[in-house]
Amino acid sequence: MSFNHFERKHAEGFYCQEDIEVIYSLQKGECYFCSRVLGSPGEKGTFHIDHLNPIAKGGDNWPNNLCLACEQCNKSKHSHSSTVLWSKLRKEKGAEWVKAKVQENKKNLPDKRKLTNQRKKERRDSLSLLKQEIEVAISRNIKRLNYAYPKEKYIEVEQIGCFLDITFNNSTASIPAPTQKTLGDWHLKEFDTLAVSLLNLESVAGYIKNA
Q1: Average pLDDT, the chain
Q2: What is the pTM of this model?
Q3: How many Å apart are CA 132 and CA 93, to the nearest integer?
Q4: For the chain, how are helix, strand and coil distributed in percent, rounded to 5?
Q5: What architecture is the 17-107 domain classified under in CATH?
């Protein structure tokens, strides 16, 4: 499963090639908006992956916010909401045609929500593993930096929008949320960097002291 190029900076969520193939099948190989026949998945330039709620307007990268559009519709919609393009198509094709097309698209929502739930579970699982790695890194660096071991150790990892909040006891470090692929590529260096930052915050605030 490849996540390359399928995550936008400053936007929550991700999708993979399998999701695009499923959405292509749900749309029966047709443009989400005008019903033009699209090229096959995997062929460069055969269709555009469009965000129904644009990234520029706070949209995300989860599969239920995606559709496949022909080049003309994608360029026409650009960073506007879908409402703008539907209004244009209503003038070109008629209100009844657009109503039928919108209803057809709505039938695919349950399957797209299922894809989104799968990707969100993968993200939650990744953040759970990250929490475990940071806990181990904090313990490792407490010893390395000669800090007194705290009586209690509370660690939490939470993604809030485009940022990842990592909390250790009284201190929180907020960083731009790494993409799913980047998170999977992290090793000891990245975990130790976060752990040391959190320990330094606790030390400066006087919550932990040298042994």
Answers
A1: 91
A2: 0.83
A3: 55
A4: 50, 15, 35
A5: Orthogonal Bundle (1.10)
